[in-house]
Every structure is written in C-alpha cells, then in structure tokens.
Design a protein that fits this description.
The protein is built from 12 helices and 8 strands. The protein is of the alpha/beta class and 313 residues long. It starts with a strand and ends in a 15-residue tail after the last strand. The structure holds iron/sulfur cluster.
C-alpha cells in the first residue's frame, strides 16, 4: 500500500522521528482535553461562514460552539475552571468574528468564497500519495487566492517574518497547482487573528465584556496588532524546494522499519508547540509500559480524499 503523507505528518517527521513513530505508526493519541484545538475549529468554521457572507454567521458559530462544548463535556472529565474557560470561549469567539467582520467589511464584500477544507490528493510517485486540505479558497478580483487562517496569542515582527517560509502554505500552494494545473491559485492570503489577552472582570457582564473586546480589537493594550494579513503571489519556498523536501522525507519514512530507525531528537522534548512533548513519558519515564500506555488511546485512520474536484471552475 502506498505511503499517505500530509503536511502534519511531514512536520511530525521533521520534528522528531520517534514522535512520528508513536503518533503515526503506533497511532497513540493522548486522551487529553485541548481547548486551543477546540477554539481553532470554532474560529475556522466561523470565519468560513463570514467569508461566505452568510447572514447568520454568528449563529452558525454559536451552533458549532455548542456542539464542541457538548462533545468536550461528554469525552472528558472537566474541572469547574475548565468548564468556565470553555463557556467564556463562546463570547471570545463571537467577539473575534464581530471584530473581523468590521475590520475587513470591504475585503469580504469584494471576495467570493469558493470553498472551505478543500481537499486534494497528489500521486507524488508510485509509493507516495500526498493529501492536502486547505482552509479556504476565495476569489478576489478574478484571482484565485489560497486563504490560510491562523489564530495567535501574539503577532510579533518575528512571527510576521516567518510567514513567507511557512511550509504548510508552500505545500498547499504548489501541490494544489500541480493537481489543478489548469486552474491554479494565483495568490496567498495569510490571515492572522490575535487571541484576546483581556479577561472577564469580576463585576463585568458578558455583554460588557463583549463590548470591551470590540474596543480591544480596534486598539489592543500593547504594541502588537490584533490582525495581520499578508498577501503574496508565491510563497518564499519554491516548488522545487518543496518537492525535494517531501521526496527526501518520504524516502526516509519508507526505509524506516524498527523503532530504533525512528530515532529520537531530544531538542523538542520540552518545546513541542510551546509544550512538553505528549510522548515524554514514553521516552523518559518508563517507556511503553501498561501504566504509561493507559494515558493513550489509539487514533482512527484519516479520511483521504480520492476525488480531486477542486473549486472555482
Ligand atoms: S519526548 Fe522527545 S525524543 Fe521523545 S518523541 Fe517527544 S520529542 Fe521525540
């Protein structure tokens, strides 16, 4: 069977081969509540509804929030503090979307939303299929644009500098244009929304907080901006460079057989997306013993798109 790769499996491999082994070969998944992931899904669906000019975008977002909340409460034993934080998220997300709609009203009016979660599968070679799933594809003034949405605690000059060499954006852009060569993406819009740093005050109502949040989005209380959009005609990583990296990574993946082949890169043990690596106990506190493995479930396989319909034709 062909090796199925994706941006995240490539990134996992490049982060630490042993992490890839635990996550992709053994499919261990930490049974843990993760609020940022939940927030990411709510914001993505909300912004897609906003770009789609759905008149009830906020209501759609509220419904997504309610579904995510119910799922989280069913799946995990949450503390009262975690439930309170989750409940606040409904207002925070609503505040983000309202501020986004206001800030980019003209841009949204000029834009046609072509599709969200747009999937494609590139037969990279006889042994490898690379699957892509893009946040949004939009049309702006007759140009087909890849819209990459991110939320971030900060938008610093360093963060902005890294946008042009974001591997995910480069893979989506170039692989989309190989798969759909007669209908290519002509531009990238990298869209960053800041996560608010202000919290509900003790005597403040949720409505008052929502209003304060709107003011914060117009003028954050620090030097960072609340929004950043960067548009560029082509990513800072060329198609040849992307292909070379994917080719070399796929060859390494295909020859790895034993656990030892998936060797460890200890540099990331304490800095996996700003957190301790989820597999830390398996590498440093006893290994794959029953009392450690009890903390993990086994992840289901991905859905892989077979039909490259594309959007915008
Ligand atoms: S704990 Fe360190 S060595 Fe082990 S999988 Fe994570 S990053 Fe790799």
């Amino acid at each position: 069977m062909a090796l199925h790769m994706s941006v995240s499996s490539t990134q996992d491999w490049m982060t630490c081969k042993r992490l890839y082994y635990y996550k992709r070969i053994k499919k261990y998944e930490k049974v843990a509540y993760n609020l940022p992931f939940i927030v990411g899904r709510i914001v993505n669906e909300g912004i897609a509804a906003v770009l789609n000019k759905k008149p009830d975008a906020i209501k759609i977002t509220e419904a997504v929030y309610k579904k995510e909340r119910a799922n989280a409460i069913k799946a995990y034993t949450l503390t009262p503090e975690e439930i309170e934080k989750l409940d606040m998220q409904e207002f925070i997300t609503k505040g983000m979307l309202l501020a986004y709609q206001t800030k980019y009203a003209k841009m949204i009016a000029d834009m046609k939303h072509l599709g969200s979660e747009v999937e494609g599968a590139l037969q990279f070679n006889d042994d490898v299929i690379f699957v892509i799933k893009m946040d949004n594809i939009v049309m702006i003034r007759k140009k087909k644009v890849l819209h990459e949405l991110k939320t971030s605690k900060t938008i610093t000059p360093d963060y902005v500098k890294r946008i042009q060499t974001d591997l995910q954006t480069a893979i989506y852009f170039h692989f989309h244009n190989i798969i759909f060569e007669d209908d290519p993406i002509q531009e990238v819009m990298y869209d960053v929304i800041r996560k608010p740093s202000i919290k509900l005050k003790k005597k403040e109502s949720k409505q008052q907080y929502l209003e304060r949040l709107q003011r914060w989005y117009q003028k954050p209380d620090d030097m960072n901006s609340a929004f950043h959009i960067e548009r560029f005609k082509t990513p800072g990583i060329s198609a040849d460079d992307v292909i070379n990296t994917v080719d070399k990574v796929s060859k390494e993946m295909l020859i790895a057989k034993t656990k030892e082949d998936y060797y460890q890169d200890f540099d990331k043990c304490h800095s996996y997306y700003g957190e301790v690596c989820p597999y830390y106990i398996l590498c440093h506190e006893g290994g794959e013993i029953p009392s450690n493995l009890i903390q993990f479930g086994v992840r289901k396989s991905y859905h892989v798109s077979k039909d490259n319909k594309g959007v915008g034709k």
